[in-house]
Structure formats: C-alpha cells, structure tokens
Predict the structure of Serine/threonine-protein phosphatase 2A regulatory subunit B'' subunit gamma.
Amino acid sequence: MGESGRVPGSPASTVAVMEPEVAGCLATEQGALEPGALPGAGSGMDWKQSLRRRLEGAERPAKRSDQELKDEEMELFTKFYTEWKGNRSGSTSSQNIPRFYYRLPGEDEILLQKLREESRAVFLQRKSRELLDNEELQNLWFLLDKHQTLPMVGDEAMINYESFLKVRDKAGPKCKQFFAATVFAKLLHNDAYGRIPIMQFFNYVMRKVWLHQTRIGLSLYDVAGQGYLRESDLENYILELIPTLPQLDGLEKSFYSFYVCTAVRKFFFFLDPLRTGKIKIQDILACSFLDDLLELRDEELSKESQESNWFSAPSALRVYGQYLNLDKDHNGMLSKEELSRYGTGTLTNVFLDRVFQECLTYDGEMDYKTYLDFVLALENRKEPAALQYIFKLLDIENKGHLNVFSLNYFFRAIQEQMKVHSQEPVSFQDVKDEIFDMVKPKDPFKITLQDLIQSGQGDTVSSILMDLTGFWSYENREVLVANDNDTTADPEDS
C-alpha cells in the first residue's frame, strides 16, 4: 500500500490521477468513491465500460450534412485567409476588383438596347468636345510662332524645350496632352541648340486630332458597340462620306452602290483575311486606306494620284467598266470563259478552274464582289493578303505548301500555251529549280505561304505559274530592263 492507504491501481487512485472532467464523469456514473474503498468484483468493469462509452461518444460527434460541412469549411477558410492578409474588417480583396464584363442586351431587350445606344452617343459627344476645334488650333499655332527660338534653320521656325513648356502652360488644358517630354524627344534630331521644328510638332498635333475625330466618326457607325465595323456599317459610313469628297462630285447617284461596294471591298480584302465579316476600327485607322479615301477632299488632286488611288472616281469606273466589258451576255455575272479575257487574256485554264473551285460563285458564275477580290489579288501580288488568296488557289492538295507536283501541275498549262503561240516550251526542271532558288524555303522540298512572303518573290512566282504574259516577262527580264534603261537614258549621252 502507498502512504495514503490506497491500493495502487484501485479505482480511487485512478480517479485521482485522471483529468478532472473524466473523473467527474466516472464519479457521476458509479457514485462517489470513499477514499480507500474498493468496489465489488461485480462492478469492476462498470466504470471502464462507462469511460469507454463516454470517450467514444466524444470522438463521434453527431453526423452533419455535406452542406453544413462545406459551410463550415468556407467559414474557416475565410476567417484564416482574412487574418493572413491582415484584413480583419470582414471585407475581402475580391470586393475591390472593378467590374470588367458587361452583358450585351439581347434582341428582345429593346429598352436596354436603346439605353446602351444613348449612353454611347453621349460618351462620343463628350469625347468630341475634348478635341481641339479650328479656333483652338489657330491659337496654338499663334503661340508656337510667338515663342519660336532663334536662329531659324532656313525658312523653318524652331522652338526649344523651355519655350515649349511656356506654350504648354498658355495653350489651355486641352493641349497639355501633346506637350509631353517624350513627344519633344522624338521630334528632336540634330539641332545644335536642342530645338524642334514648329511645323513638325504642329503637324503631329493635327494628325492626332484627326485620328481622334475619325475614330469618333467611325464609332458612330459601330452598331454593335464593340470596336469593329461590319460590312453594312462601313458601307453606310462611305455612302454618307461621298458628298463631302469633291473628287467624287461627278459620280452619278445610280453608281453610288457600285462605288461603295468597290471601296468597301478593299478594306475587307486586306483587313479581314480570315473573312470574319468585321474589321476592328483600330485596324482601319492604322492602315493607309482611309488616308487614300480622304485624299479625295483635295480639289486639286493630280491625275496621276487619282489613277493610282483605288478610291478615286476614275479608278472605280475603270474596274466596273472592265467588269461590264467582260460580261458579254449581260446577265450581271461572269462565267469562266468570260473571265478568261481578263487583262491580257493569258491566264491559264488550270488557274481559272481553281478560281471557280475555291471562290464564291452562283450557279458557276462570279458576281461583282467576288470579281473585286480577284482584281485586288492580281493587282497587288506583293501584298501578304493577295499572296494568301493566290496561294490558296495554287495549293491544289490543301496541304498548306507547294511541292514539285503542285508546281508542275500549273506549269504544264504554261507550256501548252507556249505551244499554241508557237514558242519553244521551257523545261519544267529548270523553272522548278529557279523557283526554289528564288524562294529559299526552310524545307527544300516544300514552299509555304510564309516562305513566299518572306522571300519577297511571291509576285514573280505566282506570275510564272498562272499567266503566260507573266512568265514571258520573267524569262525576258534582262531584255526588258535593258530597253527601259535605253528609254530613260538622256539622248545627249548616246
């Protein structure tokens, strides 16, 4: 026995060394144990079973539903995550993220559509008011001229950075965006006094104002309000632009629809290569087509400029006149036989077959819009979009590359035409080797579209394969160059 008179291992001693809570439970179950008392043999297992039941009950809480467990898990996660972030106010970082997606109204939500259109109109009007008007531009020019820094470089007025900042402070809040240090640095070249030309800076401001004005004008026709124009949107824009272009004053109104179709087709041919039916407004502003179109505001535009401008009246009438001349049966469409007389009439039948296989036709005949794509491709063979159009026709196996078989398939038609014109056919092996030497493809046995574009020889290769005249020009290139040199040489030097 120990000093207290208890039997070691007895229930009383066990109760004494247990945790108070467990001991209390045991005492409640068996009744109070007197110090030194031993329970009967029959009750020796009762307290053990009771303790085991209590412990098992504590380890097995009442079963909860999956939703309750998920709620508790989320509550604990939010609590610990908030503490970890040091934000104990109860708000989470997700509440501070600005909204960046707005659902477009459905077709049946007329009121929401009207509200959205009105909101866009108000927004565009506000942006338009932020632009410099003619009076403000004249005032800016006056200030720049007043603060020019001597000495002048020839007839060109210059301004240094100190005066540049003075003009910024006097020009008004609308002009401050143009007077950045980066703008001054870009216009600074080799002036010994660290100045920039006033005219160059003013032209920069004018260009920026014009771009913003044009973007706002185009956005007014963006019916979807998502930053792009569909074909019908651009048609409406150009149709309403015609009366503001003096160079188009001579067009008859009956020709307006054909002119609009001709103009819009160039935008979509080059700016929508995937044929999605829409063009980003940013892409329209970035290309030179709009500059060419608005060049028609110049009442004194030279004849040469008009002939080289796709959007001029003479150019549009030329293309449409060619279409009418090819349409011998006057049904408004072109058959393969009618199209074969295009240009010099030396396009091969094999190439024309591919045109009518791949391009959109109606009962085997081509409409004016498809014809415009055809003309744009053949007149701009150096451009990637035109090469993409032609490459699709040359890729008869739809493998994404041209191989020896593809080249031979098209060149055989050139050889046949040479026989018809009593010319000695050229060996295909020689032409094939020349083509691969010109293009220098990554794979020595395959020519991809990218290879053609990067080589800079895509126009020559396509001409060799589809047009007898093009092949003849290539074969006699040295003679033609010599003749050109003789023609341009000064008679006094000969």
Observations:
- Residues 1-43 have pLDDT under 50 and may be disordered.
- The radius of gyration is 42 Å.
- Strands lie at 158-160, 195-197, 228-230, 278-280.
